[in-house]
Amino acid sequence: METVAKPDALLDRSGQGVAVVDIEALVAQHGALLLALAHTFTRNWAEAEDLFQSTVEIALRNADQLREPAAAKAWLVRIESREAFRLKRRFRRFVSLELHVEELRHEVEMGASVDRRRAVAALPPRTRAALLLHHYCGFSVDETAAALNVSPNTVKTQLRKGLARIREEVR
Amino acid sequence: MTSGRGPEEEKAIAAVRDYFEHELQEAGSRLREPHRPARRTRSVPRGFASIAVLGVVVIVVATAARVVVLAPGSSTPPSASLVASPLPSESGTPSNPAGSPSNAPLAGDLPGSVSLSGSSGWMLLDSGLSVSNDAGRTWTAVALPGGVASSAVAAVATAADRPLWLAVKSGDGYLLYSKVDAAAAWSSVLLTPSWGLLSFASGTQGPADIVRITPGPAGIVTVAEMMSGGLMSAVTCLFVSNDDGKSFVQHPPQSGSPANMYWASVTFTTAQDGLVIAGPDTYPHVFLHTADGGTTWSESKVTGLPAAPYYTPGPPILVGSDIQVPVTICGTDCSTNAFLLLVSHDGGASFNPQGVGIPAAANPIGAVGSLGQNIWVSTGGGPLQETTDGGRTWTSVMQSGLPVNVSVLDLTSPTSATAVAIDSGCAGFKTNCWYRNYLVATTDGGRTWSHL
Question: At the topology level of CATH, where does A97-171 sit?
Answer without folding.
Answer: Arc Repressor Mutant, subunit A (1.10.10)
